[in-house]
Amino acid sequence: MAFFSFLFGLLLNALLVLFIVLLVAFLGYCLYIKYTHIKYDHIPGPPRDSFLLGHSPTFLKIMRDGGVVHDKFLEWAEIYGPVYRVNGLHFVMVTVTCPEATKEVLMSPKHPKDKFTYKKLFCLFGQRFLGNGLVTARDHEMWYKQRRIMDPAFSSLYLRGLMGTFNERAEKLMERLSEIADRKMEANMLNLVNCVTLDVINKVAFGVELDLLNTTSPFPKAIETCLKGMMYYVRDSFFEFKPKNRPFVKEVREACRLLRSTGAKWVNERKTAMQNGEEVPKDILTQIIKTAAAEENMTEEDEEFMLDNFVTFFIAGQETTANQLAFCIRELTRHPDILEKLQKEVEEVIGMKQEISYDDLGKLVYLSQVLKETLRLYSTAPGTSRELTEEITVDGIRIPAGTSVMFNSYVCGRMEKFFRDPLKFDPDRFHPDAPKPYYCYYPFVLGPRSCLGQNFAQMEAKVVMAKLIQRFSWELVPGQSFDIQDTGTLRPKSGVVCSVRHRKDEI
Ligand code: HEM
Fold first, then answer.
1. Which of 89, 160, 253, 336 is most buried per CB count within 10 Å?
2. pLDDT tens digits for 314-347?
3. 375 part of a folded domain
4. Does the residue 199 lie in any domain?
């Protein structure tokens, strides 16, 4: 009996000690939060929802309601000016819309990508995801080495050589749309363009033919799941610990594993071909293999590193372009005047021919304007963030070294201050003679960490749009909304379901 009461006393003491330790840790954490408030509260910002959680409840509510968090950033930018602060637990992010500061920070290599966002993307819920690949590498040397090796696969000479694939895959889409038009069916444009961009990246980057317009594949869903998982993982620190989210978290891990295991298979097949002395294309996959160490002494980390870049290109090289195309197709349904102008341009430059050349693309000036305007209103990858290595002062407000600073092209693109009547879709803003937007339009980011695939994406988008405009007219079926879905990247909320007609039947 005495033994049990001794044991019970011991347990009580242990619990008391544990309670005191937790209490001290909690108080210490609260003090640390207070310190971050003192450090940053000279920067204007909206009132916090709570001392501990900062503004997180506002964002979580927007996400629960299916809203776009960037609209809140926009609202706050209008209220609090070119520099404002957002808190979440002990973390502070400063949003900057001032063009001069955007130039100063983004154009310089000295401010790395911020660790809060990019370190998190190394893994998703414990499963390695983008790792140290090109988008997420924070260390300048590590990033620069990769970028140098990748650059040749994006040179204009190499991109010219991709015109055949862009044409061929876009032509498959036209065949599919032709069937849909003949049978008077409805076309889910978002799904269709997703298949095209995924087919293209697989063919030109990895030398693999998927033909997704005619076969089913788990990849589009896996990409969507990873992106959704990425959004929750970055924006909600407690997401994975809530029991109701467990099935989704498992789905995200499996989706990441599927992409990485596919990468491992394709990398190994390519390495075997290289070892057997076979001629292999100088495509992105070959470059990815080159970014790792020499083949003989490849470590497990080198192998993982190659897969980081495989997943990076699999995702970065596809989704954003498909969403841009879908937004553009959707926007044209409510601007018949713009569509008519595009039809005239396409008739003049391409006429009836099927094969679009690289030189034709340069002549499709108005189409370029329309695609740029699409990304102003619908910046499919809305922003980026940097960690300041030194203190800067913006608009008289001091931002300390070490701060995470966010730059948001969606927000700037929709500000009256930068674009008059910002919600109006007006491609003439990007007329060759119009003044260039000054550091307030950057859908591909600016500076050394800007998008490597910008020209690739816009060539591909132009080929698809030019063929679509050449052959078809389309209308949204009733019930389709013009809303945006925020899955980290932005996409049309409804699938841009359209009825499609052959233009030749209309003339
Ligand atoms: C409309 C289409 C696209 C948009 C709007 C877009 C946008 C962006 C943005 C905003 C970034 C910076 C990301 C960040 O700072 O976190 C980025 C980086 C990147 N994008 Fe794109 N992208 C597009 C298409 C593509 C394509 C087609 C590829 C590849 C074929 C690609 C490959 C990359 C890579 C490799 C990076 C990392 C560059 C670096 O840090 O060196 N992107 N893109």
1. 253
2. 888 889 999 999 999 999 999 999 999 999 999 9
3. yes
4. yes
Q: Which residues of the chain have pLDDT under 50?
A: none
CA 392, CA 40: separation in Å to the nearest integer? 13
Look up the domain containing 91 and give its range. 37-505
Structure tokens, 38: 């003192």
CATH number at residue 426: 1.10.630.10
Cβ contacts of residue 153 below 8 Å, gap of 6+? 205, 282, 283, 284, 287
pLDDT at 186: 95
Q: Establish if 248 belongs to a structural domain.
A: yes
The CA 359 to ligand 1 mean position distance, Å, reads 24
**Confidence (pTM):** 0.92
Which tokens is 478 given?
């009733």
Q: If you take atom 42 of ligand 1, which residue's CA is the nearest one?
A: 453
Residues 392-405: pLDDT tens digits?
999 999 999 999 99
pLDDT of residue 182: 94
Do the annotations mark residue 451 as ligand-binding? yes
| Residue 329 domain flag | yes
Distance 204 CA to ligand 1 centre (A): 16
Task: Report how far ligand 1's centroid is from the alpha carbon of 381 (Å).
Answer: 8
Place of tokens 């931002």: 399
Tally the domains of the chain.
Answer: 1
Cβ neighbours of 218 (radius 10 Å):
13
